[in-house]
Automatic annotation (TrEMBL):
Ranges for domain tRNA synthetases class I (E and Q) anti-codon binding: 451-525
The protein, known as: Glutamine--tRNA ligase
Binding residues annotated for ATP, in chain numbering: 31-33, 37-43, 227, 257-258
Gene Ontology cellular-component terms listed: cytosol
Binding site for L-glutamine: 63, 208
Motif segment ('HIGH' region): 30-40
Length: 548
C-alpha cells in the first residue's frame, strides 16, 4: 500500500487516485562505470520501494552510453547488489544500449522535423559558442544547415566515415536560453569504441540527456525519479518527449542526494581510491559501497532501514555516519548470536585447577531471543584481553589488577595472585586462582564489579580480527581545501593477527553477524578462504570522537 509519506509518494498517490497513472512503473538506471554506493542504495530503496508499495514494477536499466568507462564487471556487481538489498526488477535486466536502433531512428526524426542538426564545429568552438551562465551562447554557423545535408552527414557518421570529434548531432533549441542545458545540447557524438553490449556495431553514441527520456518512455516508465542535479535537465527531458509525440511522457521528479559525513560518495572518487590502491578494492569494508558494507557485515535490512530513516526530501543535507552505525546495531542486536573473542590475548594460568581440567560451561547464544546454547570449554590456561589487565590502574578501572578479582563472563570469579614479566618488563602471564563457588552466583562476603571476556587457551581457535574505523578524519573530506586523499584516517584499519575465538565460531559464515561480547559486532570476511578472519561491522556503542 503506497502511503503519502513523502512528496514523491504523495504525488504518485495523487496520480493513481486521479487515474493519470494506471500502474506505477519506475526504474533504477545506474551507469555501469563503478560499483554502487550507499547513495545508490537510497535511490534503489525509493524506486523499488515505491513500485512495491504501489503494486507496480521497477526496472533495472543500465544507462550504458559511455562504453570507454563501462564494463561487464560493474554490471555483474550492480545486479548482485540490488538483489542483495532485497529487490527484484520487473522482467529482464535492461540496457539503454538495446534501444540504440530506436534512439537512432528518433534522431533522424528530429532532424527531419528541423529539431536537430549536424554541427561541424570543433569541440573547442562548440564549447566557446555555448556561452556562460551570464553570457548567452552563439548560434553555430551550421545551425541552418539544410535538413537533407544533416541527414546525410548523420548517416555517414553512423557508417563510420568520420573521426572522433569531427561532427556531432545537436538539438536545435535555443542558444540564448537561460538554461545552459537547452543551448543546442549534443545528442550524438562519434566514438570509435567497442561497447560491452553492442560490440563494434556502433561508432556513434547517444548522450545521457538524449538517451534517458527516450529509454524511460520506451519502457513505459510513469515516474522517473532522479537526484536534484537533474532538475535543470528536466526542461530538456520534456522538450525531447514533446518533440516525439508518439511516445508516452513520463514525469521526472527530483529528490535530494544522500550525502554521508566522514566518507565520499562519488563513483569517480571511489574509483580513484581503488585504482590508487588506497583501499583494498571496491569491496573494502571501509568504503561506503554496497559491496563494502556487505563484506563488513552490514545486514541488508539495516541499510534499508537507514534509507527509510533518511527519508526523501527536496533539499540537500548531510547524514551523520552515526545514523548508519545505529541502524546496523539496531538490526544486529536482535539477530547476532553472542560469542567470546579475545583480540589481544594475555595468557592466564588458573593455578588451582588440575592440569587436565576440562569443563564444558553453557551459555545462551542470545540474552533475549531463543537461539539455544553454546558450549564454552573452561581449562586451566585461558586468555583474557591485554586491555583488561592494568598493573597501575587508572581511576575507575573495574577489571583485573594485581591482587584484584574479576568475573570471567559466563564462568567464575578469579583473583590475580602473580604477574609474570619478561626481561623487557612486558607482562607475559597472569597467575590467578578460581573461586569455584561462583559459577552463576555472586559471593556474599564481597562485591566483584568487573566482568571480562575470555577463551580457553587450548580449545579456542586462532583468528585474525580486522577492526575498521572511519576512512576519513574529516567530516567533509570532499569539501575541504586539501585533497580528500590526504584526509584518510591512518587508523581506519587495525589488524589483530593473533586473536583467539571460542570454538562455537568454527562454522562462522560471511554475512552472519556475531556479537563478540564486550567488543562489538563482527562477521566472517567473505574472502577468508577457510581461515577465520573477522571484520568488525560496528562497535557496541558510539565511541567516535570520544576517548574510549
Ligand atoms: P556518482 O555521482 O556517485 O558518480 P551517478 O549519479 O553518476 O553517481 P548513476 O549510476 O548514474 O551514478 O546513478 C544511478 C542512480 O542513482 C541515479 O538515478 C542517481 O540519481 C542515483 N544516485 C546516485 N548517487 C546518489 C546519491 N548520493 N543519493 C541518491 N541517489 C543517488
Ligand atoms: Mg550519473
Amino acid at each position: 500500500m503506497l502511503e503519502a509519506s513523502d512528496f514523491i509518494r504523495t504525488r504518485i498517490s495523487d496520480d493513481l487516485a486521479s487515474g493519470k497513472t494506471a500502474q506505477v512503473v519506475t526504474r533504477f538506471p545506474p551507469e555501469p562505470n563503478g560499483y554502487l554506493h550507499i547513495g545508490h542504495a537510497k535511490s534503489i530503496c525509493l524506486n523499488f520501494g515505491v513500485a512495491r508499495e504501489a503494486e507496480g514494477v521497477c526496472n533495472l536499466r543500465f544507462d550504458d552510453t559511455n562504453p570507454e568507462k563501462e564494463s561487464q564487471e560493474y554490471i555483474d556487481a550492480i545486479t548482485k547488489d540490488v538483489q542483495w538489498l532485497g529487490f527484484q526488477w520487473g522482467g529482464a535486466v535492461r540496457y539503454a544500449s538495446s534501444y540504440f536502433d530506436q534512439l537512432y531512428a528518433f534522431a533522424e526524426q528530429l532532424i527531419e522535423q528541423g529539431d536537430a542538426y549536424v554541427d561541424s564545429q570543433t569541440p573547442e568552438q562548440i564549447r566557446e559558442g555555448r556561452g556562460t551562465l551570464v553570457q548567452p551562447g552563439m548560434d553555430s554557423p551550421y545551425r541552418e544547415r539544410p535538413v537533407a545535408e544533416s541527414l546525410d552527414l548523420f548517416r555517414r557518421m553512423k557508417a563510420g566515415e568520420f573521426a572522433d570529434g569531427a561532427l556531432v548531432l545537436r538539438a536545435r533549441i535555443d542558444m540564448r536560453s537561460g538554461n545552459m542545458n537547452l543551448r543546442d545540447p549534443i545528442l550524438y557524438r562519434i566514438r570509435h569504441q567497442q561497447h560491452h553490449q553492442t560490440g563494434d556495431t556502433w561508432c556513434i553514441y547517444p548522450m545521457y540527456d538524449y538517451t534517458h527520456p527516450i529509454s524511460d518512455a520506451l519502457e513505459g516508465i510513469t515516474h522517473s525519479l532522479c537526484t536534484l542535479e537533474f532538475e535543470a535537465h528536466r526542461p530538456l527531458y520534456d522538450w525531447l518527449l514533446n518533440k516525439l509525440p508518439q511516445l508516452p511522457h513520463p514525469q521526472q521528479i527530483e529528490f535530494a542526494r544522500l550525502n554521508l559525513n566522514y566518507t565520499v560518495t562519488s563513483k569517480r572518487k571511489l574509483k580513484q581510491l581503488v585504482d590508487e590502491q588506497l583501499v583494498s578494492g571496491w569491496d573494502d569494508p571501509r568504503l561506503p559501497t554496497i559491496s563494502g558494507l556487505r563484506r563488513r557485515g552490514c545486514p541488508p535490512a539495516a541499510l534499508r532501514n537507514f534509507c527509510e530513516r533518511v527519508g526523501i526530501s527536496k533539499s540537500d543535507g548531510v547524514v551523520d555516519m552515526a545514523m548508519l552505525e545505529f541502524c546496523m546495531r539496531d538490526e544486529l542486536e536482535l539477530t547476532a548470536p553472542r560469542a567470546m573473542a579475545v583480540l589481544k590475548p594475555l595468557p592466564v594460568t588458573l593455578t588451582n585447577l588440575p592440569e587436565d581440567h576440562l569443563q564444558m560451561l553453557h551459555a545462551s547464544r542470545h540474552p533475549n531471543v531463543d537461539m539455544g546454547e553454546r558450549e564454552i570449554p573452561f581449562t586451566p590456561t585461558i586468555f583474557i584481553d591485554r586491555s583488561d589487565f592494568e598493573e597501575v590502574p587508572p581511576k575507575g578501572f573495574k577489571r583485573l589488577i594485581p591482587g584484584g578479582e574479576v568475573r570471567l563472563r559466563n564462568a567464575y570469579i578469579i583473583r590475580c595472585d602473580d604477574v609474570v614479566k619478561d626481561a623487557d618488563g612486558l607482562v607475559t602471564e597472569l597467575r590467578c586462582s578460581v573461586d569455584l563457588a561462583t559459577l552463576g552466583v555472586n559471593p556474599t562476603d564481597r562485591k566483584v564489579k568487573g566482568v571480562v571476556h575470555w577463551v580457553s587457551a587450548s580449545h579456542s581457535l586462532p583468528a585474525e580480527v580486522r577492526v575498521y574505523d572511519r576512512l576519513f578524519m574529516d567530516a567533509a573530506p570532499d569539501r575541504s581545501e586539501v585533497d580528500y586523499r590526504e584526509l584518510m584516517n591512518p587508523e581506519s584499519l587495525v589488524v589483530y593477527a593473533d586473536a583467539r575465538v571460542e570454538p562455537s565460531l568454527a562454522n562462522a559464515a560471511p554475512e552472519q553477524g556475531h556479537q563478540f561480547e564486550r567488543e562489538g559486532y563482527f562477521c566472517l570476511d567473505n574472502q577468508a578462504d577457510g581461515r577465520l578472519i573477522f571484520n568488525r561491522t560496528v562497535s557496541l556503542r558510539d565511541t567516535w570522537g570520544k576517548a574510549s
